[in-house]
Every structure is written in structure tokens, then in C-alpha cells.
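Re: [ENG-882] Designed sequences occasionally contain unexpected residues at chain ends

Forwarding the minimal case from QA. C-alpha cells:
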């Protein structure tokens, strides 16, 4: 069991094969933020009678606000599902000032351990509010009912430390780091990665140990990022490719897959142990090929060619290798050559 100290956002952690059973009977009046499939596989186990069950239609702030206004009086909000459901529940918990309970049904993103809700403002990513799960419920039975590759996707936001930490180092070397640079934070990120590298078969097979490695990886990541007040070790150029693609194609992706694709391409741009990190992603069976995300070769090439001007138009994005890059069509075509379309 992992020790929860003051530096993590998770107030209480409940784990086990049936950790969510009967939850609905012990949290007072509650509402649920979910989606059809996750709610179907959990409602009986969670039990109780929710005041309202909201199926997430979009993460646009305007929709979330309308929905918040309509909610009946509740003591708690339970987020049941993947990143969107958990983020929507965080948003409601923050807006209404009520207790948050997070029941991730897949581990595909780190939303269940981070305080801010990732929403969309006019299709652009925005992180707002602050909410801590009390408790975070890791029910192995529920989580393993999801397709294994969606849980494996959870490692995407951890492996992104490989490229993001590189970017922070890089920005610092150019005198462009937006935050005080911390060698110690980078060291801690490397420690988390090393532990994961030793557990790739467990994660690939989604054993209890493998699933907990992802959850603990996220919680440890927060002990680096929350006190620092930013996610520089975990978010960098690999995420910026995802933002570009999301805006270009106007549709969501499985976060870990698209971040995996970002790691694949940006580690090449960085000259940052590409062969090694590609092998890690293969060993753990993280899907990252454009084919699985329905991304066409031409769209990906266009995205890469546009990447520098995309980040330059968004001064809020941190300084990364992209800012000094000169991505040509030749480079982009060579970089995507081994990917499946
Ligand atoms: Zn991410």
C-alpha cells in the first residue's frame, strides 16, 4: 500500500478486486458523472440510488455549466469512467463545493490523480478548478473489464516524462524555462520511469501489480508536480503534437495512444534515445500507430509541418525543442516511415 502524504492530491485511496462495492450506500446524496458503458458495468456494484446520473456529451465549459445548474442537491459527486467522466466530476465538485469520489473504470489518463479539471473552452484545452478524490477507488475487477489496451494506455502520460523532462532541460539550457529549474524533480521523474521499465510485462498483462504501478506512478508524479505548481516534467512537446492534431481533426483520441505517438515522433526530433523508448512502448504493447487512431499520413505530416507555428501562436505553451525546430517535409516523412497508417 502506498503512503499518502500531504504532497499528493489523493485524500484517500481504496484498492482491491471489489473496492467499489457498496460505495453508493455510504456517501449520502450523490450524483454520478459517467458515460454509457462505464456506468453499465459499475452501477450494480456501486449500489445506492443516485439523485442524478449525467451522461457526458461534451467537455465544453458552456455545456458543463448548464448541467451544473440543473443538478439536484447532492453531498457528493462520483466520477465513473475514463478521463472525461472523472474530469467532469472534478469540475462539478469544484463548482458546487461538494465531495469528489473518483472511480476510474480505465487507467488511460492521469485525470483521477490530478486536481484541475481538463475541459474545453471553444475547443481549446483548459485546466480549471481544484478537486481531490476522497476516496480514489481502484477496483481491479472494474478496471480489468475494460479492453486491456485502454489500461496500458495509462502508461502514456508517464512515459511522456521521457520527452517532457528532456524539453525542460532543453528550455533551461537556453535560458527559457518558465519555472525555476529543478534537477531534483528531473531525478524523481527518472526514478518513476525506472520503476515502470522494470514492470513492463506486469503492465502489459494488466495484473494487479501492473495496474498499481500506473496508479502509483501518477501519484508519485503528483508529488513532484503539485508542490512545484506545474507539470513540466510530464508535459512537453509530445503533448503539443496532440493539441495540434486535436485542433486539426476536431475529435478526441485515446490520450495514451496519442501521447505515445507524440513520444515516438518528438523523441526523434529531440535526438533523445528514440530506439530505446520505442522499444519500451513495444514491450508494454502501448498502441501508438496512426492507424489505430484513424489519422491519415497526410494529416500527420501537415501537423508536424505546422507544429512550430502552432506553438508560437500559443504563448502559454512552454518552451520546447519545437520552438527551435525546422521540421521539413523530408524530415517528417522519414520520421513517420515505420508507422502504420
Ligand atoms: Zn497527458
Amino acid at each position: 500500500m502506498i503512503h499518502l502524504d500531504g504532497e499528493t492530491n489523493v485524500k484517500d485511496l481504496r484498492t482491491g478486486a471489489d473496492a467499489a462495492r457498496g460505495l453508493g450506500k455510504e456517501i449520502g446524496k450523490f450524483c454520478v458523472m459517467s458515460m454509457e458503458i462505464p456506468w453499465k458495468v459499475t452501477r450494480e456494484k456501486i449500489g445506492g440510488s443516485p439523485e442524478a446520473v449525467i451522461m457526458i456529451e461534451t467537455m465544453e465549459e458552456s455545456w458543463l455549466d448548464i448541467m451544473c445548474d440543473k443538478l439536484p442537491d447532492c453531498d457528493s459527486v462520483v466520477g465513473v469512467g475514463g478521463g472525461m467522466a472523472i474530469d467532469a466530476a472534478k469540475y462539478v465538485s469544484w463548482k458546487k463545493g461538494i465531495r469528489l469520489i473518483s472511480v476510474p473504470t480505465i487507467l488511460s489518463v492521469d485525470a483521477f490523480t490530478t486536481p484541475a479539471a481538463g475541459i474545453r473552452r471553444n475547443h481549446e484545452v483548459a485546466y480549471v478548478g481544484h478537486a481531490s478524490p476522497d476516496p480514489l477507488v481502484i477496483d481491479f475487477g472494474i478496471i480489468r473489464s475494460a479492453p486491456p489496451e485502454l489500461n496500458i494506455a495509462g502508461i502514456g502520460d508517464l512515459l511522456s516524462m521521457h520527452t517532457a523532462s528532456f524539453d525542460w532541460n532543453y528550455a533551461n539550457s537556453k535560458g527559457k524555462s518558465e519555472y525555476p529549474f529543478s534537477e531534483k524533480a528531473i531525478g524523481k521523474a527518472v526514478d518513476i520511469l525506472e520503476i515502470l521499465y522494470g514492470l513492463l510485462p506486469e503492465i502489459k498483462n494488466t495484473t494487479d501489480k501492473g495496474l498499481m504501478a500506473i496508479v502509483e506512478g501518477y501519484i508519485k508524479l503528483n508529488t513532484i508536480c503539485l508542490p512545484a505548481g506545474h507539470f513540466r516534467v510530464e508535459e512537453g512537446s509530445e503533448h503539443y503534437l496532440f493539441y495540434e492534431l486535436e485542433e486539426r481533426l476536431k475529435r478526441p483520441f485515446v490520450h495514451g495512444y496519442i501521447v505515445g505517438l507524440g513520444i515516438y515522433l518528438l523523441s526523434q526530433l529531440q535526438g533523445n534515445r528514440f530506439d530505446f523508448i520505442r522499444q519500451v512502448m513495444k514491450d508494454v504493447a502501448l498502441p501508438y500507430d496512426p492507424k489505430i487512431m484513424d489519422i491519415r499520413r497526410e494529416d500527420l505530416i501537415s501537423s508536424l509541418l505546422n507544429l512550430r507555428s502552432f506553438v508560437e501562436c500559443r504563448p502559454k505553451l512552454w518552451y520546447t525543442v519545437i520552438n527551435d525546430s525546422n521540421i521539413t517535409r523530408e524530415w517528417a516523412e522519414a520520421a513517420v516511415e515505420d508507422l502504420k497508417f
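QA comment: On inspection the terminal residues look reasonable. The chain has two domains: 13-146, 149-335. Proposing we downgrade this to a documentation issue.
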